[in-house]
Structure formats: C-alpha cells, structure tokens
Amino acid sequence: SLEQYLGNIIVVNSWASWSPFSVTDLPILTKLAHEFESNKVTFLAINRKETQEQATRFINTMPDLGGLLLVLDPRDHFYASVGGYAMPEVVIYNQRGEITNHFRGDANEGNIKDAINQLLNSN
C-alpha cells in the first residue's frame, strides 16, 4: 500500500520486462533515488503482471538498482488504478498522497527532477 509512505513524496514507475523503455527508465530512477536520498522521497518500481521469475530474470540483467523499492503487482492493480495506457508510466504523489504529476512513455529525468523539486520547495 502506498499509504505507508505518506509524508514522503512518492515516485512510482510502472515497468515490465517486455517494455524496452524499462531498460533505460529504471537506471534513471535509481540515479534520482540516490540524488534525493537525503530528502523524504520514496521511489517505487512496480512490475506489471509478471511472475516473480520473469521480473527477477529481467532485474538480474540490469545494473544495480539500489535505492528503488521493487514491487510485484500480479493483478496490475496499480496501473489500472491510475488509468495507465502507455508504457512505462511515472506517477508522482505529494506528501499527502495526491497525484501531482503523471508522465507517460519513457522517463524524462529533467521533468521528474523538476516535479520533485517543486514539491520539496512547496513545504
């Protein structure tokens, strides 16, 4: 549940091993997670509808993703709950759990960083 992270800015990425953008997006989010680790920002990478074996096999081909919380969503609940229709998607929540940004397609590091900084500076 995302509720356990309330009080933090939450950055959620939907990913899947079959999405070529996941290969580039997950390292970008890892970089940002390290950049913002001293702030109250949580980065979640939620896998869409794959088995643990599929997701693990893909993750094992990636560079270190330390800083990202990797989550399995076998029923694709999160993606459906945010009205997902592109892959991947990044959703940013403010500290109260309200969606402030929803980026579709490959992650744009600058846009995500700007959105986080706006939220950090608004408090």
Structure description:
The protein is of the alpha/beta class and 123 residues long. The protein is built from four helices and five strands; from the N terminus they run βαβαβαββα. It has helices at 20-35, 52-59, 77-81, 109-121; strands spanning 9-15, 41-48, 69-73, 89-93, 99-104. A five-stranded mixed sheet has the order 3-2-1-4-5. Strand 1, helix 1 and strand 2 (41-48) form a beta-alpha-beta unit. The model has no long low-confidence stretch (mean pLDDT 94).
Topology:
Layout: E1 9-15, H1 20-35, E2 41-48, H2 52-59, E3 69-73, H3 77-81, E4 89-93, E5 99-104, H4 109-121
Parallel strand pairs: 1-2, 2-3
Antiparallel strand pairs: 1-4, 4-5
- Taken as a percent bin, the fraction of beta residues is 25-35%
Helix-strand sequence: EHEHEHEEH
Helicity, in percent? 25-40%
N-end to C-end Cα span: 24 Å
* Number of E-state strands: 5
Low-confidence stretches: none
Task: Give the averaged pLDDT, no decimals.
Answer: 94
Can you give me a brief rundown of this structure?
The protein has 123 residues and is of the alpha/beta class. The protein has helices at 20-35, 52-59, 77-81, 109-121; strands spanning 9-15, 41-48, 69-73, 89-93, 99-104.
